[in-house]
Amino acid sequence: MITRRRAFLQENIIIAASEAQSHRDARVPSTWQQQLTHAIRDPQILCERLGLSRDWLAVARIGHDLFDVCVPEAYLTRIAHADINDPLLRQVMPLGDEALTPQGYVVDPLEEADHRPAKGLIHKYAGRVLLIASPNCAINCRYCFRRHFPYSDNSPSRAQWQEALDYLRSDTTLHEAILSGGDPLAANDRQLAWLVEQLESIAHLKRLRIHTRLPVVIPDRVDDALLGWLTSTRLQTVVVLHINHANEIDQAVVDACARLKRAGATLLNQSVLLRGINDDVATLAALSERLFEAAILPYYLHVLDPVQGAAHFDVPDDEARDLVAALRDHLPGFLMPRLVREIPGKGSKTPL
Ligand code: SF4
């Protein structure tokens, strides 16, 4: 298995370099790290670049004060100019509605604070654990259920990872480690390669799952260094992407996914059902079709977790059920995402 994967790597590196070059916009700095550094983090620049009026800047500042804006250039290029309703802009544009505090919307909607047996480790479900491999993201999604997560208390150094790794070593019922964050791929590859090496030395672990949005928002993140550790691990790899709208998948994303596939990863997608972004049948059908064109299988469609600051994105469960029932008339079964809600304390996601 390892030999076959290494052979793929050589081919991957050559193809990755030429694909990344051919899709690079002249405005986009060359490496993913530079793109991350130069991401837009000022609401005024976001509004100016997208031709939005000063009225929008005023409300954007309210949301930005609660949760910083962050939009990388490669994502910005997919947003329509001067259209406040653009479905990609809606995901990243801070708004005054984020200051509302309706009942039931809280800072830790999944009660993750109750499931942290070691720094950087969350253990909610049997057989698998989640590691906060990076406190950072390449984009700040306004509906994020971890927008209030205490990352400063959960960003272990190498020495501090030992407690979490000891926990994994001692529990032989664990078969899967999930790298999460933030976005785990916001960490550098030296750190990730080290962490994966530690995980693969634990004999009872079989799978490495990576929950990430980075190959979508900065496709150049799928570079030689990442493919190096991903290809050489003995663990079976699953990359769960996070895409909510077909417009997020441009050719650079398709190419990044092809590189991940050639490295041996299974590609799945989870979406969040979001008011005004993807809450209609045609949009959800187009998303599934486009995902499959990028070699990604739809996995979950989550209803919104009730996180403070995101209530304006909510779609009630009954409406979500009706939408998904109607979606079945438009898609083959293998392109249907499972509609789920995460309920704190339950042993798995709850199908709706
Ligand atoms: S990339 Fe993921 S973790 Fe980061 S803000 Fe978006 S949804 Fe949240």
From TrEMBL:
<keyword id="KW-0411">Iron-sulfur</keyword>
<keyword id="KW-0413">Isomerase</keyword>
<dbReference type="InterPro" id="IPR013785">
    <property type="entry name" value="Aldolase_TIM"/>
</dbReference>
<dbReference type="InterPro" id="IPR007197">
    <property type="entry name" value="rSAM"/>
</dbReference>
<comment type="similarity">
    <text>Belongs to the radical SAM superfamily. KamA family.</text>
</comment>
<protein>
    <recommendedName>
        <fullName>L-lysine 2,3-aminomutase</fullName>
    </recommendedName>
</protein>
<feature type="domain" description="Radical SAM core">
    <location>
        <begin position="123"/>
        <end position="346"/>
    </location>
</feature>
<dbReference type="InterPro" id="IPR003739">
    <property type="entry name" value="Lys_aminomutase/Glu_NH3_mut"/>
</dbReference>
<keyword id="KW-0408">Iron</keyword>
<dbReference type="InterPro" id="IPR058240">
    <property type="entry name" value="rSAM_sf"/>
</dbReference>
<dbReference type="Pfam" id="PF04055">
    <property type="entry name" value="Radical_SAM"/>
</dbReference>
<keyword id="KW-0479">Metal-binding</keyword>
<keyword id="KW-0004">4Fe-4S</keyword>
<dbReference type="InterPro" id="IPR022462">
    <property type="entry name" value="EpmB"/>
</dbReference>
<keyword id="KW-0663">Pyridoxal phosphate</keyword>
<keyword id="KW-0949">S-adenosyl-L-methionine</keyword>
